[in-house]
Amino acid sequence: xTVRLRIAPSPTGDPHVGTAYIALFNLAFARKQGGKFILRxxxxxxxxxxxxxERMIFESLRxxxxxxxEGPDVGGPLGPYRQSERRDLYARHAxxxxxxxxxxxxxxxxxRLDTMRKAQEAAKLQSRYDGKxxxxxxxxxxxxxxxxxxxxxxxxxxxxxxxxxxxxIRGEIRIENRTIDDQVLMKTDGFPTYHLANVVDxxxxxxxxxxxxxxxxxxxxxxxxxxxxxGWKAPEFAHMPLLRNSDRTKISKRKNPTSLKWxxxxxxxxxAMLNFLALQGFSVAPSEGAKGFATEVFPFSRVxxxxxxxxxxxxxxxxxxxxxxxxxxHYLRALxxxxxxxxxAPFVKPGTDPAAMHALVPLVKDRLKRLGEWEELTDFFFQxxxxxxxxxxxxxxxxxxxxxxxxxxxxxxxxxxxxxxxxALDQAGRALAQELGWKVGDLxxxxxxxxxxxxxxxPLCETMVALGRDRVLPRLEAALARFxxx
Length: 486
Ligand code: GLU
Hints:
Elements lengths: L3 E4 L9 H16 L3 E4 L11 H14 L22 H14 L2 E4 L3 H13 L15 H9 L5 E4 L6 E6 L3 E6 L7 E3 L7 H11 L4 E5 L6 H11 L5 E5 L19 H7 L3 H10 L20 H7 L14 H14 L2 H8 L9 H11 L9 H9 L17 H17 L5 H15 L3 H13 L7 H8 L1 H14 L4
Parallel strand pairs: 1-2, 8-9
Antiparallel strand pairs: 3-4, 4-7, 5-6
Helix pairs in contact: 1-10, 6-7, 9-11, 12-13, 15-16, 15-19, 16-17, 16-18, 17-19
């Protein structure tokens, strides 16, 4: 049997990190088993779905390299892969359930349902449909529909007994049928609900394993009952642990950026993002000799090799941006300079001199946590004149006049250097600091501020070399002049 897995996002709003997280595990399992990975768009919510959102989902999954074998844009043998294009299928299947008695028409008005819900809430009862239309004769129900009365179609959940399924991560899950609501399958507007469309599609698309987020666990018994009502074999299920904010609540926009577009725009690398998402519930067996952080760094191919749903940890770690930053920095450092330049390209101001970029990349490589930090780390390089607080030119415990004198002496030493290489500059600086009886760091801080306008920069001497004499000297002179303002 060829396994077939799918991701079934609803195209509402920005592409969500949770979609990538679930796609990753589906794809890894499909690849491991030599099966197929399908992308299906669940756009039955006509109000909230948008083509723009669908486009962004495609873009973000492609950015991450989570590529699908079948989908609305790439086609495939079991399409269409967009639910809005499959409405007749749902209508046909709903009719089948009505005919067999597994489902029934419900004419209850929104007002009646609302009043019922409020009464149940007041009585602290679980809110659910009271079954008023369950016993309507079929002929009567059909006549009312034919006469134009609006109705939904509900699934007839058995009043007694238990529905159970085996979750590949969590083991057997059993739910008392009396606690399951008679789920609406078709709305009055003729659109299916998630439950009907999802089950019909998973079946017709030959899905063998449904791997989705924990939040759908309570829907699964309804789905299991639906499969049974159709006489179909249900797929295997796995419900992945939720992504969590640092306070362990379900990930939310308010506490954590959730849009994949945000992560891309910030300059997180797709491979770091994938690694990070994989860690939210999974750990791969460490490779030989790996310790600590190294055990957490692994490529997607390693997830493919080692994926095993029984090993998913349901108390997954939190979505910790600090950890993501560390991982990202690690992946950035591992890139070859040319590759880093290529990745940086979208983050660099248009018109930037490629030679300058080439000179700067090796300097900032070890400091970048995100590609988006490029601008902040290197803007000094391209500015005509630097803006900074002149007080930064005076180290603690040093008098302004002494600081000025120290800087002046460095300028003289710099001018005297036949070849201002990084080593030569470093040596000259150290020798001068010793003569002055200063800490080396104090002198270098004055130079750093003078040359870059900042207190934290790429390595100072290399930066001066990259800037070149023609820019370093005027900056040092300008700094000397700033002392007059102190
Ligand atoms: N459309 C659902 C979602 O947006 C799919 C859930 C499932 O995988 O069954 O998450």
